[in-house]
Input
Amino acid sequence: MVGAGLGGLSAAIHLRRAGYRVTVYERNSRVGGRANRIEHGGFRCDTGPTLLNYPWIFEQLFEAAGRRLGDYVRLLPVDPSVEFRWPDGARFQLSSDMNRLLAECERLDPGSSSSMLDFFQDAAAKFRLSFDKLVTSNETSPLRWIGRLRVREILRTSIWRSLDGELARFFKSRYIREAFGSYGMYLGGSPFELPGVFSILPYGEIAHGLWLPKGGIHALVEAIARIAGETGVEIETDTDVSRIDVAEGRVRGIEFTDGRYREHSIVVSNVDRPSTDRDLLGGAHKSSRKPPKMTPGVMTFYWGVRGRIEGLGHHTIFLPEDYRGAFRDLCQRRRIPSGLPFYAAIPSETDPDLAPAGASTLFVLVPTPLLSEMPGCDWKAAACDVRARVLATLGLDPARIVFEEVWTPEDWSERFGLFDGSAFGASHILRQIGPLRQPNYSPEVGGLYYAGASTTPGTGMPMVALSGRMAAERIVERHGVPEAMGIEDFAHAR
Ligand SMILES: Cc1cc2nc3c(=O)[nH]c(=O)nc-3n(C[C@H](O)[C@H](O)[C@H](O)COP(=O)(O)OP(=O)(O)OC[C@H]3O[C@@H](n4cnc5c(N)ncnc54)[C@H](O)[C@@H]3O)c2cc1C
Output
């Protein structure tokens, strides 16, 4: 296994459970990939993911390892969950408490609570269809994939409509549409491009809650690495893979940057899929396919702040006056939006232990174009400019910042091998979902598999945890359970 991101750790656990001997090689000294941690002077910042959805997927991962999630990490509910704010002063706060959410809809746009109920009914059906029939199993044939649905169900998916178009069917309020449409940013950039089926994102977050593991997202990662270790997975950190060795169309082993070599007949790469194909497959074995369309990059700011940040809750998304223009800037004009959308999180509001007593941990994420879309950009200078704009919007005196780290798309790319600096991996436009997405196996190289955000089913922590399971299932289906290491051996290893 190359890479100990969440997809890699999940694949490792499932493979081990199936009886394989598994070694994970991770280039960084900490596991978790994008879901990493920065620690300084009592401030603990999660580097990437800060919103945890669909906890049952992680419960299932622990169950696969014969463990209980609750024995390793405590999930704290975050409710009210996310607040959206606009420059004109409008606000919209989400909550899994239906009465509260409906009252908020009425406050923002009188009469919209019934639209919210209609939306919920529709999105709940889409959500069930997606999870029961589309997302959670390996499928290579688009016809068989869509054939799992009855005609009525196909119509329900709204895959031919944009996410924004789908939201417009339910909501007159621009604020509600913009708030829910902005979830598209995590999947491909623009609610005007993504298919309408992704209305399940805001629905899923509200219906199933938003969580923070006690100790931060990285506490969950550490727990997953721990159960991997307990089930017999070996994890070698500070181990940089330079090449996946291929001979006669089959994987033969792995070469490291320090010159070492290990033989392996099956390799799962958790390194971003297009980066694996470009950087780790030597010469003739590089994939002939064009790289996929990627989600945008991000600039991330990690701040330790003196005192509490008054007036801001755990999760806030700031949307600009010209919402459509911001997406046009980002996805078509290829520049950092002039009206800046950004996300701010203060996890210490929910778990005060993430900051020294009385202080706050503040995380800010600003979407940017990809590295190739801003050639010659001085990212450090761009980050200075963005920093000033963000602080002005937050009304935060920079003198209160006692600790700071800033990562640009260059940093994200260098640290974790993210293709073109893309934060969330391959986009989820229509031609890149389900069996149309780059698969979790290599059609060109026998024994090479993929797990993670740029392969199936997609990006986000729950999805990459599923991708690990699906890659393991694919391997077991093709290679069977190794005789030399049956389930009994697995039991002993535990
Ligand atoms: C800023 C940001 C915010 C996000 N917010 C959320 C959120 O709130 N909620 C959510 O659910 N998701 C969020 N995501 C998405 C989520 O983090 C990712 O989808 C998920 O963590 C990706 O996991 P992965 O399995 O693809 O592995 P990755 O995280 O990509 O890990 C790959 C691993 O491979 C290692 N590696 C790379 N090259 C080599 C090599 N040559 N040799 C050895 N090892 C190598 C890397 O160091 C890394 O550890 C966010 C992502 C980012 C960047």
Q: What stands out?
A: The CA atoms of residues 47 and 116 lie 33 Å apart.
